[in-house]
Design a protein that fits this description.
This protein is mostly beta strands and about 60 residues long. It has a 3-stranded antiparallel sheet with strand order 1-2-3, with no helix packed on it.
Length: about 60
């Protein structure tokens, strides 16, 4: 199966403890829809030296 991603939409949501999360919807070229969410990484937990813990607001803004 060779399916391409047609669109991606990301937004900030808040969990039950008022912590910011990022939620992403994708739509494939054949019409399938997928959704996933993940918590924002705390800067001290970030193992990528090139990332400075960018806020979700900046991450989801195009």
């Amino acid at each position: 199966m060779n399916t391409a991603i047609k669109s991606v939409h990301a937004r900030q949501i808040v969990d039950c403890k008022c912590r910011p999360m990022v939620e992403v919807d994708i739509v494939t070229s054949d019409g399938h829809i997928g959704r996933g969410c993940a918590p924002q990484a705390h800067p001290s937990e970030n193992t990528n030296p090139g990332c400075s813990g960018t806020a979700i607001q900046k991450s989801t803004t195009v």
